[in-house]
């Protein structure tokens, strides 16, 4: 099973188990909201642009709420589990589902997992960690462009990837999966270490960044 399919199946199982009212790390969203968001991304390309473009966000919110009204929670989770339809961009463009949704589904899986009590990081296969490192390394400057301080990402083996070049700089160390969560703005729940001036670290931990 591919990483994207494994993440999709595991996230869907967790959503089914927790029900529609469980918290997530996405501010103000329950598991029902998150399921509707994922369905919107994959089945409503007309509304998905508002995820990234603030001037379209109102339309996106309206469509997401409409999905929650029209579909029961089990039906929404079933659509998440089924994945993007063949007519969607993820179905039409070979490799796009894996290229985009491997990261998206991992992050949102952890948004659900880490909002529940007693969570611990998962042990991921080495090839999945390597994949995440490649994506983080390539995207670090984009992900961290709004950082108020300089950032260098570092794996436990010492391998580094530059993020934002500025002074003072903070070195953030962790497994690639944890650095991915950090770079997507989940600093409070990413198991990473910080090396830098205390004020710079504090500013970095509160910075709004990611896609």
Oligomerization category of the chains in this entry: single chain
- First-residue to last-residue Cα separation: 27 Å
Main beta sheet: 4 strands, mixed
Order of helices and strands: HHHHHHHHEEEHEH
Task: Quickly count the domains.
Answer: 2
Point out poorly predicted stretches: none
Class derived from helix and strand content = alpha+beta
Mean pLDDT: 93
Q: Roughly what fraction of the amino acids lie in strands?
A: 5-15%
Helix content: 40-55%
Shape verdict: globular
The radius of gyration computed from the alpha-carbon positions, rounded to a whole number of angstroms, is: 17 Å
Enumerate how many helices there are, as a single number: 10
- Spatial ordering of strands, largest sheet: 2-1-3-4
Counting DSSP E segments of at least 2 residues, the number of strands comes to: 4
Protein name: TIGR03085 family protein
InterPro entries: CHP03085, DinB/YfiT-like, Maleyloyr_isom, MDMPI_metal-binding
Domain Mycothiol-dependent maleylpyruvate isomerase metal-binding: 4-49
Strand and helix map with partners:
Elements: H1 3-18, H2 31-43, H3 45-48, H4 57-70, H5 73-82, H6 89-92, H7 96-113, H8 126-143, E1 150-154, E2 160-162, E3 169-173, H9 176-183, E4 193-195, H10 198-206
Helix pairs in contact: 1-5, 1-7, 2-4, 2-5, 8-9
Descriptive account of the structure:
With 211 residues, this protein is an alpha+beta fold. The chain has two domains: 3-113, no CATH class; 126-206, Nonspecific Lipid-transfer Protein, Chain A (2-Layer Sandwich), CATH 3.30.1050. It contains ten helices and four strands. It has helices at 3-18, 31-43, 45-48, 57-70, 73-82, 89-92, 96-113, 126-143, 176-183, 198-206; strands spanning 150-154, 160-162, 169-173, 193-195.
């Amino acid at each position: 099973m591919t990483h994207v399919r494994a993440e999709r199946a595991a996230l869907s199982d967790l959503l089914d188990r927790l029900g529609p009212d469980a918290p997530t790390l996405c501010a103000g969203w329950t598991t029902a909201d998150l399921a509707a968001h994922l369905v919107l991304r994959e089945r409503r390309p007309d509304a998905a642009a508002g995820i990234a473009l603030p001037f379209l966000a109102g339309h996106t919110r309206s469509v997401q709420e409409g999905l929650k009204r029209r579909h029961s929670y089990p039906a929404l989770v079933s659509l998440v589990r089924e994945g993007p339809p063949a007519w969607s961009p993820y179905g039409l463009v070979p490799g796009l589902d894996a290229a985009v949704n491997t990261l998206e589904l991992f992050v949102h899986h952890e948004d659900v997992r880490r909002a529940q009590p007693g969570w611990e990081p998962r042990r991921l296969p080495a090839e999945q960690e390597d994949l995440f490192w490649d994506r983080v390394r390539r995207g670090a400057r984009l992900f961290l462009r709004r950082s108020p301080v300089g950032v260098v990402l570092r794996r436990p083996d010492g391998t580094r990837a530059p993020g934002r070049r500025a002074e003072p700089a903070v070195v953030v160390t962790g497994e690639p999966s944890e650095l991915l969560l950090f770079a997507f703005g989940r600093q409070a729940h990413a198991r990473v270490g910080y090396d830098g001036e205390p004020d710079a670290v504090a500013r970095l931990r509160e910075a709004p960044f990611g896609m």
